[in-house]
TrEMBL record:
It catalyses: shikimate + NADP(+) = 3-dehydroshikimate + NADPH + H(+). It comes from Marinobacter vulgaris. Involved in the biosynthesis of the chorismate, which leads to the biosynthesis of aromatic amino acids. Catalyzes the reversible NADPH linked reduction of 3-dehydroshikimate (DHSA) to yield shikimate (SA). The gene is aroE. Transmembrane segments: none annotated. This is Shikimate dehydrogenase (NADP(+)).
Length: 273
């Protein structure tokens, strides 16, 4: 069997082995997918060793996505812009290729699973860290009318605007602090890690209108802190990142195997855990 794995630290809670093994049984692909905990200080050795042993592909998660990007010999265009990689594989010449499927996963979940088009819409993105940088390219490729990046540290949002200006096309791209946006957006995407501490980005409730779509890139068994806040402000279309998690995995699976799994039954199964 071809061997795949997800590498992170910690890794025991990763859902990737479960997701990929469900994909494999559903599509009849013969593969094994495991979880590897790399030492904090030796991602490179762990990844290199895996491929030397004949491994076919790696997913990479916290805290190694940037190291994976640095380790690669070549990067796809979307990985280049993302500055981080969640997917590694070797090409025919044995060169290590880095890709990033997170943004594709987010966009596919919004558009295909939830029926929400991004084209021509006004989008507010909260946060300006690695998670947000990873998804901006694919969001902009959908040609929203406007994209506002709000962050606690405004300079980081401004840096992302500079970095993505060249791929923004006709989209108006702006940076600001959390307190600034005060009118309703069509779509609000929370990409901060604030919920991890049970915190909320201190954004005005006025950004939520009757039809605003809320998307928290985080996923947890209970409603996320951000989504609960949005519901309390009257939002009705509120989604978490479970679909994104499964869709980014599906995109990696498709890259490695050339087969597109059906994500719906996998999302449903994980939701019912
Ligand atoms: P990740 O890989 O999850 O993006 P990161 O690169 O450390 O991690 O970025 C974390 C993001 O969440 C940043 O936008 C951070 O804001 P700052 O850039 O100002 O640090 C944001 N964040 C983290 N904790 C937060 C909190 N308690 N309130 C608001 N924003 C928070």
């Amino acid at each position: 069997n071809d061997l795949y794995a997800v590498v992170g630290n910690p890794i025991s809670h990763s859902k990737s082995p479960r997701i990929h093994n469900l994909f494999a049984s559903q599509t009849g692909e013969q593969l094994e997918y495991t979880a590897i905990q790399a030492p904090e200080d030796d991602f490179a050795g762990t990844a290199t060793g895996f491929f030397q042993r004949g491994g076919k592909g790696l997913n990479v998660t916290v805290p190694f996505k940037q190291e994976a990007w640095e380790l690669a010999d070549r990067r796809t265009e979307r990985a280049q812009l993302a500055g981080a990689a969640n997917t590694l594989y070797q090409d025919r010449e044995g060169l290590l290729i880095a890709d990033n499927t997170d943004g594709k996963g987010l966009v596919t979940d919004l558009t295909a699973n939830h029926g929400i088009s991004l084209a021509g819409r006004r989008i507010l993105v909260l946060g300006a860290g690695g998670a947000v940088r990873g998804v901006l390219g694919p969001i902009l490729a959908e040609k929203p009318a406007a994209l506002v990046i709000a962050n606690r540290t405004v300079a980081k949002a401004e840096a992302l605007v500079t970095l993505f200006a060249a791929v923004a096309g006709d989209t108006s791209l702006d940076a600001c602090g959390f307190e600034q946006p005060c009118e309703p957006f069509d779509i609000i995407i929370n990409g901060t890690s604030a919920s991890l501490q049970g915190d909320l980005p201190p954004v005005s409730a006025n950004v939520i209108g009757a039809d605003t779509v809320i998307y928290d890139m985080m996923y947890s068994l209970q409603t996320t802190t951000f989504n609960q806040w949005a519901l309390d402000q009257g939002a009705t279309r509120v989604f978490d990142g479970l679909g994104m998690l499964v869709e980014q995995a599906a995109e990696s699976f498709r890259l490695w195997r050339g087969v597109s799994p059906d994500t719906r039954p996998v999302i449903d199964e994980l939701r019912n855990d």
